[in-house]
Write a sequence for this structure.
């Protein structure tokens, strides 16, 4: 890890209510890069006021926001996390240590603290996708929203999906590239009050994500 520490890319769409807690939870030496993806609730202004680097990505899509954050990052090791308050970012050093120890990719497996934290439709879709990944030889049990990886190597994977399929394409291409992938249990809570999930918050959102995942698997 270089002197820049670790950059944490946080795709953001209307997460104003969550950002103060999320940014306060970053470990020392971890720099937040909040990628605003069209928020109308003042999210970028709040992030900037709290000391985060803010990047504007007008092209809508989770993958588009992640890619913009990677391009803006300068650290050797980067983390990618949701900005909704559902994850405990104090757990990031464990993933970063795995990358420093030789893994190309470290990911979190969500362990919900309550049933409300992970709706049944989202959990069911994730279980099917995880089974498909394991059948391809990748030992993961979650298409995780928390990741640590070396920035240059991730960019070299050439992930093209700019929507919800980005996390799945990352895992598929990591397996094809022969990457060592390590998975760790991470706490998964209900997202911050005042925010709404673009995926698991509704059956419609989950179906849209499954559509994007299906496109990735069909390539």
């Amino acid at each position: 890890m270089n002197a820049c520490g670790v950059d944490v890319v946080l795709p953001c769409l209307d997460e104003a209510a969550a950002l103060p807690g999320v940014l306060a939870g970053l470990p020392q030496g971890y720099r937040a890069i909040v990628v605003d993806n069209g928020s109308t609730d003042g999210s970028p202004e709040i992030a900037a006021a709290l000391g985060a680097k803010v990047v504007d990505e007008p092209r809508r899509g989770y993958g588009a926001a992640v890619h913009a954050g990677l391009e803006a990052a300068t650290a050797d090791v980067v983390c990618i996390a949701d900005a909704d308050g559902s994850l405990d970012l104090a757990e990031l050093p464990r993933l970063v240590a795995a990358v420093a120890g030789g893994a190309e990719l470290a990911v979190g497996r969500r362990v919900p603290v309550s049933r409300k934290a992970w709706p049944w439709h989202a959990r069911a879709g994730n279980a099917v996708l995880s089974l498909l990944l394991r059948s391809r030889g990748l030992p993961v049990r979650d298409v995780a929203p928390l990741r640590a990886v070396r920035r240059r190597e991730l960019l070299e994977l050439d992930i093209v999906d700019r929507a919800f399929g980005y996390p799945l394409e990352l895992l598929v291409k990591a397996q094809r590239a022969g990457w060592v992938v390590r998975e760790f249990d991470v706490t998964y809570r209900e997202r911050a009050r005042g925010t709404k999930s673009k995926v698991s918050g509704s059956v419609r959102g989950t179906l849209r994500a499954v559509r994007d995942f299906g496109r990735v698997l069909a390539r």
